[in-house]
Design brief:
Elements: H1 2-7, E1 9-11, H2 15-23, H3 31-65, H4 75-106, H5 109-112, H6 130-137, H7 140-166, H8 168-173, H9 179-219, E2 222-223, H10 224-235, H11 238-259, E3 265-269, E4 273-278, E5 288-294, H12 296-307, E6 312-314, H13 316-325, H14 337-356
Parallel strand pairs: 3-6
Antiparallel strand pairs: 1-2, 3-4, 4-5
Helix pairs in contact: 3-4, 3-9, 7-9
Length: about 375
């Protein structure tokens, strides 16, 4: 049962899945929204420029049907007149054509945005398969599209029938009106009918857009296994990442161990902690921690220090404080300056004794570690 649930597409599409779909040209689209926007643009253009366009068309008709009788028998004159009428009609309707063209191009971008998908331009022979075409026609999506087409026809046809029934007498009265008045009335009727059609298409688009968005996201849903696989691809395999981190830690450990022979002293807690310090008065403002460790790593630091003849100093409180409050390649905190200064003084005395002989210096004891810095002693 668990395997079956992992194979069911129950998860919402990830941002990566949506991005891949856009690259393949798959974006939410609504034909009803496009039809509504184009029709609304045409209606708005007619509403704003309809009077001007009607006046221009009426003037073209007046000039076109008013000519000298002798010109009717001259084909050159008639061709010139036809050319002028067609050119004038084209210029008159140009704003409407431009507005409709812009709306047709911009309409698909409302839901899906601007998409450039070269993959869609490739030739795919499976699209030419008649069996797949029949399958798409009789699929649930095909049935929904057929229902929307029927509903659209009913709405548009119903609105047209309503306008004809409501304006029946008015339309017949246009035949006895003067040309100018009749054209104006007829244009107003056309705009009125178009607005009603736009409202009906807007209602259909308001229903279709949420459905298309839901269907689009449903189509791109992912199984739990796909989500896990995508997460691994983006973030990397946890096992590989763990191996990389382990290798990084090992490399850092080797670099740290390489610094132990260069240290001036290793402060230890005999069985738990080891911290290697180095101080160069010409380059450093305070001693720097070059290596630290606990447990087996602390033992390894002490072994390398002995092999490299680096002095070891047992100072458990200071070793614990340095391990807790100091980072590698960082200077010690100011609160430990006094204690570390006594340690460095002992190291210099030890070095001088080894070179010159005499009485060996006494190792410092009871180093001043401020209250609260030693994790082994609870703060008061």
């Amino acid at each position: 049962m668990a395997e079956d649930s992992d194979l069911e597409k129950t998860e919402d599409p990830s941002s990566r899945r949506l991005e891949q779909a856009r690259e393949e040209g798959q974006v939410p689209q609504s034909r009803e929204l496009s039809t509504f926007l184009v029709t609304m643009t045409g209606a708005a253009t007619l509403l704003l420029l309809g009077g001007w366009m009607a006046g221009r068309v009426m003037g073209l008709f007046r000039d076109g049907f008013a000519f000298d009788r002798r010109a009717a028998f001259d084909e050159n004159v008639m061709l010139d007149m036809l050319e002028r009428m067609l050119g004038g009609a084209l210029l008159t309707l140009m704003p409407l054509f431009v507005a409709l063209m812009v709306a047709a191009v911009a309409a698909p971008m409302v839901l899906g945005g601007l998409v450039f998908a070269p993959k869609v331009l490739g030739l795919k022979f499976d699209r030419l398969d008649p069996l797949q075409g029949l399958g798409r026609m009789f699929s649930l999506h095909g049935l929904v599209e057929m229902f929307k087409a029927i509903l659209k026809s009913v709405l548009v046809g119903g609105v047209a029938a309503l306008v004809l029934w409501y304006e029946f007498e008015h339309l017949f009265s246009l035949m006895v009106e003067p040309l100018e008045t009749g054209m104006a009335d007829f244009s107003a009727t056309i705009v009125f009918a178009t607005l009603l059609i736009v409202l009906s298409l807007g209602l259909l688009a308001a229903i279709d857009v949420p459905f298309q968005l839901w269907q689009y996201h449903k189509k791109l849903r992912m199984t739990k296994e796909e989500v896990k696989r995508e997460s691994k691809e983006q973030e990397g395999d946890p096992m590989i990442k763990g191996r990389i981190r382990a290798m990084q830690r090992e490399m850092a450990r080797r670099r740290m161990m390489a610094e132990v022979p260069k240290a001036d002293v290793v402060v230890t807690n005999p069985t738990h902690f080891s911290v290697a310090l180095k101080y160069d008065a010409a380059k450093m403002g305070a001693p720097v921690v070059v290596a630290k460790g606990r447990g087996e790593l602390a033992l390894k630091i002490r072994e390398i220090a002995k092999e490299s003849e680096v002095p070891l100093l047992e100072a458990p409180p200071l070793a614990r404080a340095l391990y807790k409050h100091c980072e590698l390649e960082q200077a010690i905190p100011a609160a430990l300056y006094t204690a570390v200064a006594e340690v460095m003084a002992y190291v210099y005395q030890l070095d001088a004794w080894m070179k010159q002989g005499g009485l060996p210096p006494a190792a410092p004891t009871a180093l001043p570690v401020p209250v609260g810095m030693d994790p082994g002693v609870p703060a008061e």
